Amino acid sequence: MDLEKPARALDTLQEVFRNKKWAYNWSESVLEPIMFRYLELCVELRKSHIAKEGLFQYRNMFQSVNVGSLEQVI
C-alpha cells in the first residue's frame, strides 16, 4: 500500500470492509490492525462519514464474535 497516496490507500482498505467474501473470512487479529490504519487515514483525510461506515461494517463482523476487539477499535 502506497502511503504517499493516502486517498488511494483509504479506497483500498474500504474495499476490504465492503467485500463480505474477504472480510468475513479473516479473524479479528488480522482485521484489527487494518481497521486502525483505516481510521488513521479517515482522520488524516477528514472523511468522518467513511470512518463511520467502516466502523459499522467492523461492528457487524465482530459484534457477536469478539466484543473486545470492537471496544479496542472504538
Automatic annotation (TrEMBL):
Q: Which UniProt keywords apply?
A: Cytoplasm, Initiation factor, Protein biosynthesis
Cytoplasm in keyword set: yes
List, in alphabetical order, the Gene Ontology terms for molecular function in this entry: mRNA binding; translation initiation factor activity
Q: What's the superkingdom here?
A: Eukaryota
UniProt GO BP: formation of cytoplasmic translation initiation complex; translation reinitiation
Annotated GO CC locations = eukaryotic translation initiation factor 3 complex, eIF3e; eukaryotic translation initiation factor 3 complex, eIF3m; multi-eIF complex
Location of the eIF3a PCI domain: 3-74
InterPro entries noted in UniProt: EIF3A (IPR027512), eIF3a_PCI_TPR-like (IPR054711)
Query: Does the keyword Signal feature in the UniProt annotation?
Result: no
Query: Pfam families in the record, alphabetically?
Result: eIF3a_PCI_TPR-like
PANTHER family listed in its UniProt record: EUKARYOTIC TRANSLATION INITIATION FACTOR 3 SUBUNIT A, EUKARYOTIC TRANSLATION INITIATION FACTOR 3, THETA SUBUNIT
What name does UniProt use for this protein? Eukaryotic translation initiation factor 3 subunit A
User: In which organism is this protein found?
Assistant: Eumeta variegata
* Organism lineage: Eukaryota, Metazoa, Ecdysozoa, Arthropoda, Hexapoda
